[in-house]
Amino acid sequence: MKKNSPRRKIVDAIDFLTDSSFEQQVIDVTIDKISEFTDHPFHLYEGKRLEDMIGSIKANGVLTPVIVRNMGNGNYQMLAGHNRMNASKMAGLDTVPAVIKENITDEEAYIYVIETNLMQRSFNDMYPSEKAVVLEMRYRMITNQGRRTDIVNELQSLEVGELIKEDRVTDSRGRIGKEYGLSGRTIARLLRLNNLIEELKLAVDNENIALMTGVELSYISKDLQNHLYNECEEIGIKLSLKDAKNLKEIYNDNELSETEITKYLFSIEKAKINARTHKSISVSNEIIDKYFDESVSKKEVESIVEKALEEYFKDR
After folding, report:
1. Domain check: are 155 and 185 in the same one?
2. What pLDDT, on the 0 to 100 scale, is given for residue 292?
3. For 290-312, how does the pLDDT look when each residue is reduced to its tens digit (9 = 90+)?
4. Rounded CA gap, 73 and 247, in Å?
5. Is residue 225 one of the residues assigned to a domain?
6. Against a cut of 0.70, is the pTM above it?
7. Are 23 and 116 in contact (CB under 8 A)?
């Protein structure tokens, strides 16, 4: 933290609730002293969105302070503002304006991370793995609803500059489903994604594997998930929902191992090779000469063969 750094004041709802002064300082903090939140579950901006943020910071500075957690010895942990910090680094800044939170628990820190992302963008715009984290947090907060409400109030107050009150109602699956427009089955499926390794979560987010494929794979141990992912990458196989169900069934029978995974994947590849060989079947010269003379082009032959096959399979 810079000595004699400029100080600004913003309203903090937590101070409304716990302190008569209800004013909080914003201080410039050295970026190198801020670490990312452990296992930060959200994707950082890329492409045009990142470029726009960098351009804005270069032109106007960081207008909205980040929120960091004091870790002691002059070090901090990012709670809200990972994208702003990343863009600030790329814009060449050494410091960012920050609100410093003191003496908060790991659970409270996690609420800051989740809630600020929900405030910045729609739940529906999130990747599947991000939705899974949000829903899991909602369930975890059932027993600590009051503290979550306080933090939500604070974060909303940072947006509008005044205290916002929220009714304290205990969460339930029904309330969560209504809040996000999700059925109980969809919520259950999304929650399963939290049991995937990070590489498979990313594959689901990038639509390299289907969501339901990821759900089925989530029942397999993470050690075997790691082996499965690495083998798929090396062999070049994209798992289908049927494959995932088969592997899950083998796992439930206590018969899935790294060796069995490799054997299964090679059987998929062998089937593909056989299918490709079948597709490349050729017609003998004797058959060609029987039905076509030399004046017929290759394209015309292919067209006639296609029409003949259509007629053959019409009533089958």
Report:
1. yes
2. 81
3. 888 877 888 888 888 888 877 77
4. 49
5. yes
6. no
7. no
